[in-house]
């Protein structure tokens, strides 16, 4: 099935050279998910759509969407470039990771969701505007778990429904355990109170409404560790940008 002359929003995920003068450009679109576009003449000097296919460009595109094969772009408008992300290798790594994570999410649950597209664009905009890239990414990671079939309960103890902490996260119970039920799982993550506080908060927060972030370095490190454990143990995906981020962080701290 081919949809001709349709308008959609998208963000450029990656691109690679194709044949002598062309490029294959992967775009995360609002209405069709992740699609690969054959852009003819993209490597020629003065190519008219060159700004629209730069990495992380967010724009409105008009083109043909092919459900199974390559898609095509005819025109674009309302281009937005994320300048800070383009200039900073660190921010770039987080934005790349977010897009790769969303791509995996579509592979495990092929529901096309405008909500998730908007969440992704909001996260990348927030990082571009200077909000802490790790925290923004962690919020998205917490909220995306459901798309990978992991839907932890962050609201109350999964055993007694108690809302009084302290809490810890248990992978085998799929959510929080309260202190009275810690003994049921010796493999629980042994998270400190601050880390649990933020994980619970992240599960319900609206990224668009965040104007400042102030999380200490130690808690950030614990949050990153907790989410890596949950993703490794319950989701099991490998994302190249993530190992790059981890390498950068070990050099920083
Ligand atoms: Zn309990």
Automatic annotation (TrEMBL):
Tell whether Kinase is among the UniProt keywords: no
What are the entry keywords? Answer: DNA damage, DNA recombination, DNA repair
Q: Which GO terms describe its biological process?
A: DNA recombination; double-strand break repair
The job of this chain, per UniProt, is described as:
Involved in DNA repair and RecF pathway recombination.
Give the record's family classification. Answer: Belongs to the RecO family.
Q: Which HAMAP family match?
A: RecO
PANTHER family assigned to the protein according to its UniProt record, in alphabetical order? DNA REPAIR PROTEIN RECO
Q: What is this protein called?
A: DNA repair protein RecO
Species of origin? Ligilactobacillus hayakitensis DSM 18933 = JCM 14209
Give the gene that encodes this protein. Answer: recO
């Amino acid at each position: 099935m081919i949809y001709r002359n349709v308008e959609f929003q998208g963000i450029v995920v990656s691109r690679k050279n194709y044949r002598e003068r062309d490029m294959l450009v992967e775009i995360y679109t609002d209405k069709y998910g992740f699609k690969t576009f054959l852009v003819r003449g993209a490597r020629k000097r003065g190519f008219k759509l060159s700004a629209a296919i730069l990495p992380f460009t967010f724009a409105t595109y008009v083109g043909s969407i092919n459900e199974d094969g390559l898609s095509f772009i005819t025109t674009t408008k309302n281009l937005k470039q994320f300048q800070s992300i383009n200039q900073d290798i660190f921010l770039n790594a987080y934005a790349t990771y977010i897009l790769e994570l969303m791509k995996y999410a579509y592979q495990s649950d092929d529901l096309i969701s405008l909500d998730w597209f908007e969440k992704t664009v909001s996260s990348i905009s927030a990082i571009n505007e200077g909000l802490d890239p790790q925290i923004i990414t962690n919020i998205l990671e917490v909220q995306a778990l459901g798309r990978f079939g992991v839907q932890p309960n962050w609201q109350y103890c999964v055993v007694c429904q108690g809302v009084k902490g302290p809490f810890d996260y248990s992978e085998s119970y799929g959510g929080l355990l309260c202190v009275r039920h810690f003994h049921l799982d010796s493999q629980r993550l042994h998270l400190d109170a601050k880390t649990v506080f933020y994980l619970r908060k992240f599960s319900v927060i609206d990224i668009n409404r965040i104007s400042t972030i102030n999380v200490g370095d130690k808690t950030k490190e614990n949050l990153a560790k907790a989410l890596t454990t949950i993703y490794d143990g319950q989701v099991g995906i490998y994302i190249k940008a993530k190992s790059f981020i981890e390498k950068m962080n070990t050099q920083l701290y």
